[in-house]
Automatic annotation (TrEMBL):
PANTHER family: GH16 DOMAIN-CONTAINING PROTEIN. Gene3D superfamilies: 2.60.120.200. This is Concanavalin A-like lectin/glucanase domain-containing protein. It comes from the Eukaryota. It holds the Pfam family Glyco_hydro_16. It comes from Cercophora newfieldiana. GO terms for molecular function: hydrolase activity, hydrolyzing O-glycosyl compounds. Residues 31-280 form the GH16 domain. Residues 1-22 form the signal peptide. GO terms for biological process: carbohydrate metabolic process.
Amino acid sequence: MKLLSCNVRSFALASLVLRAAAADCDCGYTTDVGTGDNVRNALFTDAFETDFRHVADLKASEWRPQTYNKTAEITPTNHGRLYSNASTLANTVGPDAGLQLVVGSQVVDNLVRSGEVAAKRKDFFHGSYRASIKLSSEPGTCAAFYWYFNDTQEIDMEFLSKEFHTENSSYPVNIVLHSPLSAAHGFDAVKAGTWTQAFLPFNPTDGFHEYRFDFVPDVVYFYADGEYLTQMTGAAVPTVGGQLLMNHWSNGKATWTGGPPKKDAVMTVAYVKTYFNSSSPERQAEWQKRCPDIAKGSVCALPSLAEKNSGETFFNLTSLNGGDSASGSDSGGSSASATDGGKSAGFMVSPSSVAVLLSTGMVSYFLSSL
Ligand SMILES: *[C@@H]1O[C@H](CO)[C@@H](O)[C@H](O)[C@H]1NC(C)=O
Ligand SMILES: *[C@@H]1O[C@H](CO)[C@@H](O)[C@H](O)[C@H]1NC(C)=O
Ligand SMILES: *[C@@H]1O[C@H](CO)[C@@H](O)[C@H](O)[C@H]1NC(C)=O
Ligand SMILES: *[C@@H]1O[C@H](CO)[C@@H](O)[C@H](O)[C@H]1NC(C)=O
Ligand SMILES: *[C@@H]1O[C@H](CO)[C@@H](O)[C@H](O)[C@H]1NC(C)=O
Ligand SMILES: *[C@@H]1O[C@H](CO)[C@@H](O)[C@H](O)[C@H]1NC(C)=O
């Protein structure tokens, strides 16, 4: 199997040395999953990446803002939630560029304004799911990066801003799997034993950090900035393909979000990068077609941390420019390989990709890292 390392260093070498290459990563992406003695290399056939820092119009992206009301009657809490477009904002400007999910401080009709987006495709099965997020320090919200099929097949990384304590550097992330077991306990994952807390080795409100979960058969591993946090195993691990979502909300419930926040609270998502096996038979067939023999095909190794400092490791370099220059179609920066799965233009050395490198200042980063 031809292994093309996609870390910045070898990527730079590959880019500079190769004259022209066919589309690479046709056979997929590999990454180490697990921890300690259980580390193993997993292969995923498809990629879906979005650089929200260059998404000016969510409509043109591979994501959909969710618009619905969750009233307090349905969930017996202090407040309901109003999920609207007004709480999902695209911002391409400044150091905090990215998708903003806003929780409002004003309660209207007993509803707290909240933000949620879902990727359009719904075929995310086993995979490595990564998002770069800056959280709000305003107490009273829940920020979540999660995978969902239905109420009994769900993987959550949930951050409660009221639990962040700078005085003792305590920054927990709540890890939850919803399963028939948690349903039997009224969706109380704590009682069902499918909830755990891990502590982040940094203040998640001080800047962007990459949160990641690797969902593989029978186990889900969780990471922050490439560092292993914890894992969940057992019958609660999902067994189907599903959706990928992010949200930021408050319902005032003292035992969970608290709040609503005193000031509008913003969660900002810089990017989402996912490498996964599709649950769609069509996409599986496409992979078989572009990768008839994995021993002869091209596989790209993923870095454990998708982005560090200024280095960027998107597989589709056009996404660095917002995806609007070369292809023209599907602008808005989503490099969502929705139609052609693992294909990556990123490995072709073309004048335009060099231009992208130059225009994003990556060359100096490459040189300093060589
Ligand atoms: C993903 O799918 C490929 C192709 O079917 C398979 O070889 C690989 O083992 C799968 N990965 C995981 C982690 O199950
Ligand atoms: C919300 O935005 C979506 C597109 O992102 C659009 O289709 C929909 O009509 C909008 N809804 C409202 C109520 O404006
Ligand atoms: C949600 O509630 C708000 C405030 O009461 C209302 O204006 C809006 O129409 C509702 N939206 C939906 C989708 O029911
Ligand atoms: C969720 O989906 C699984 C798999 O199809 C199914 O067994 C389960 O009953 C579903 N749960 C709910 C709450 O619908
Ligand atoms: C940090 O301090 C807060 C109270 O200020 C407390 O609730 C929390 O449990 C502490 N965290 C740890 C990990 O000790
Ligand atoms: C690269 O990104 C562009 C724009 O987002 C998209 O149209 C194209 O299909 C992508 N190409 C590959 C090979 O993923």
